Each structure stands twice: as C-alpha cells, then as structure tokens.
Amino acid sequence: MKRIGLLMVCMMVMAVFTANAKDGESETYRYELEALDGVASEGRVLLKVWSYGKKEKLTRQACMANAVHGIIFKGAPAGAGAGLIKGSKALCPEGYAAHKDYFDTFFRNGEYLQFVELTNNGNIQAGDRIKISSKEYKVGMACIVNYTALRAKLEGDGIAKGLNFLF
Q: Which residues does residue 47 pair with via DSSP β-bridges, in sequence order?
C-alpha cells in the first residue's frame, strides 16, 4: 500500500516537471509591463519592464527581450507611447505557440534587438530592484520599443495581420 502511494506521488511530481518543461516559453518570459510618463517619438512605445529572475543582476538583453515579447503578445500598456499606439492590442494574439519556430529564431538570434533600446543606458534605479524572496528578484528597466517597425516586420513575415485585410 505504501508503495502505491509513493508511486502516485512520484508520478504527480514527474507530471508537474514535465508540464513545466513543455511550457518553457512561459517560464522564460516572466514579466510585467507598465506605461511610463514621458513622450516617445511617433511610432514608439515608452514602458517599464519588470522582469523576474533568480539573480539580482538581470541582463539587459533579458529585459529587452521581455519588452518586445510583451508588445507582440500582450500589447502596449495604456499610456505608453504616442498617438494610436496607446493601449494597442497584441501584434500576435494567437500566441507564441502559433508561430513557435519563427519566434524561437527571432529571439534566439537577437533579431528583436533592432526594435528596442534601453533608456538611461540600462541603469537600474534603486527602487527598481526588489527582493521578492531569498531566491527571486524583480527588476524594472525603462525601454523604448519601435512599435511601427516591429509591426511592419511581423506583417512582412506573415505573422501579424495588416490593417489592409479590413478593406
């Protein structure tokens, strides 16, 4: 009887680890987006990316990848950017899995870097470094994402629908 109970516990633990391994995308991209006050040039989105990680010193690339990932899959937070971009919907609402190969290559090869830049040279302000637990930090970095160019790239590659499909 004890063996059956132990076997069931082991199977449940394995199921949890297997599910987390399959859903690696959600584990890699753990973040929150926040609109920042300020003016971004036309077609750009000004936002703060709050990234979670085990190390206090998150890399600049991780925050920049999270910013682009957020614009693609969550959309621009209300108040960020200029003109019609404020509160825009996700560029790819179908999600990461719909075009997994494309997005794996896009983020792995660093193509996303041409659409994002860090403000204040990526320096982290004192209030933007929060210790959540003994093994986890939440770090905020201000970014500017070129929404218009990113949208054009995804439309050109057939990932996002252009607005001309309405006409």
A: 35, 143
Output the six-digit token pair for 153. Answer: 């790239």
143 in Cβ contact with 67 (< 8 Å): yes
Residues 6+ apart with CB under 8 A from 36: 46, 47, 48, 79, 80, 142
pTM over 0.85: no
The pLDDT tens digits for 5-36 are 443 443 443 443 333 333 444 446 789 999 88
Tell me how far apart the alpha carbons of residues 19 and 17 are, in angstroms, rounded to a whole number.
5
Which residues partner with 136 through β-bridges? Answer: 133
